[in-house]
Amino acid sequence: MSGPDLTTSIGEVQLANPVMVAAGCAGTGRELEPFLDLAEVGALVTRSVTLDPRAGEAPPRAVETPAGVLSDTGLQGPGLQGFLATELPWLAQRRVRTVVSIAGQNLGQWAELARRVGLSPGVTAVEVNLAWPPDSAAARDSYQAAKILAAVRRDMPRGIPVLAKVAPVMHTVVDVSRAAVEAGADAIVVGHGLPGMALDRATLRPVLRGGNGLLSGPALNAVALRCVWEVHAALPEVDLVGSGGVRTGYDALAMLAAGAGAVQVGSVVLHDPAAPRRIATELAEELDRRGIPAVADVIGRAHRPHPDPTGDAR
Amino acid sequence: MTEGVRGPVQVVGEVLSNKRAGGYQHLTLVAPGVAERFRPGNLVALAVGGPLSDRLLRRGFPIYRARATGAYRATVELVFAVTEPGQEWLAGLPNGASVDVVGPLGRPYALPKEPVACTLVGNGHAAAPLFSLADRLRERGCAVHMVLAAPSERELFGALDAKRAAKTVVVTTEDGSIGLPGGVGLVLPDLLARTGSDVVYAAGPAPMLHAVAAAAESHGAWSQTALDTDLICASGSCLTCVVPTVGEDGVSRTVRSCVEGPVFRGDRVRWADIGTVPSDIWGDE
Prior knowledge:
The complex is a heterodimer of chains A (314) and B (285). Chain A has 314 residues and is of the alpha/beta class. In chain A, 30% of the residues lie in helices and 18% in strands. Chain A contains eight helices and 14 strands. Chain A has helices at residues 79-93, 107-118, 142-154, 173-182, 221-234, 249-258, 267-271, 275-289, and strands at 8-10, 13-15, 19-21, 43-45, 62-65, 68-71, 98-102, 125-129, 162-166, 187-190, 194-196, 213-216, 239-243, 262-265. In chain A, a hairpin with a 2-residue loop joins strand 1 (8-10) and strand 2 (13-15). In chain A, helix 3 packs parallel to helix 4 (173-182) and helix 5 (221-234) runs parallel beside helix 6. Chain B has 285 residues and is α/β, with parallel strands linked by helices. Chain B contains six helices and 16 strands. In chain B, the strands form three sheets. A seven-stranded antiparallel beta sheet of chain B has the order 4-3-7-1-2-6-5. Chain B has a seven-stranded mixed beta sheet with strand order 11-10-9-8-12-13-16. In chain B, helix 5 runs parallel beside helix 6. The chains are: A alpha/beta (314), B alpha/beta (285).
């Protein structure tokens, strides 16, 4: 495509465009294939892979809430062995930029996941899901996040970047991000869902069988944007990925301007399976309209003073 | 999984007509590409609220009828109960309005290779997909019999259609307001015996399908059951519409109603465990 240069890099990895599909929102990849050329997306983050197969939470697992969706699938999945045997090779064969999301329950599991995913062909990067198991505080606790990142980094081949996914919680996000980077994370993903609840209209009891779930979608956008801003202000050298309710090219542009080098889109894919391509196209139009030649030129722009329209740059 | 030319498409559909049908809404959409790929039992998933909508989740519907060619090009028809704001929005759309349509999705009904006798069982508006199924079965020389069930007369759908579609029509309601009282479980065994049905096709909520699967089993017939369940993305990405099933190998799995279903073989579903993840299930494929 002629027009603005959409390439970006996250932790030494070059992406053709900054629109990634967030963990758990692309199924195995196969589900989106009828609607989207997966090789075209900036990167696809797999559903979180656990060491053992998991049957997941009893339904209902998701419910629509104002401008969002509350969900808890319980990380249903085939386990590491099944994932490496079926889902990863399928993505690798199609040359999809694949970021493997991993979820461990203790440091031993984290290390084993890191070792075995790191040695598998077709892995662009690894994303550490710090918000699992649900009672874990690691996504908003520096000490726990650092221990996990150190364990993952130690067993991960050097060439594979490790992304730490931290919770968009204003008062902890900077500390957790700093701790994760010091422990070996190559980039930070700001953007888990936040704990929420929805009650059934008829019974006035929780809708989700698991009781609670994580809220994602546009309802979180302003919160995530603020967190990206804060992390970039505190750690300007750190590569950031912003996620939370991005639905349009403008939403993506705002995340970039707040300091992210890339964005992840999640709930919008459930609404519109072709959204990643549309958002990348819209982002190019947004840049073009503003006369910005490249994604690299807009990252962190919101932190710089707005130029005086008179051209007086005092 | 459907792939290639048979796979689903995403198109901007146009409302051709939108009207009440008894207690239900009957929506006809011009949706090129969807109708051509349609097989009875397939679903469509519609975005609701228009482009500025904050309603994120798609609404999944079984397809009532599809016409690949006609005066208005390719159309699909849906019949649904209006029970929530997204469906209210759909029900209020004027002719000519645009709706984002994804489909056809899901596994359709398997059709018999021989011209056998078939009984089709539907509950309320969930019976809608049985009418296009009946057409396909008759084209194959199958004898078609039908049971239409509902809680009461108000919720009954398709009684007129059924007279055209089937040799035998049995109506049953829970409260006996029309037809035989008592529901599917009471009327089906007798009908299967009378018609010598080899296959039972059904569409409706889980308890009715459970009764159908049991009646088919004791009669020695195959059953093909389409589960009427809420869908979130309807494309298989979100892993929320899960159903516990038993595979050919005897191993239990949690599968997605929108991809591996909505049509399941009745003897493969763990009916008593619907709505749970049984403790002997370990992950999916």
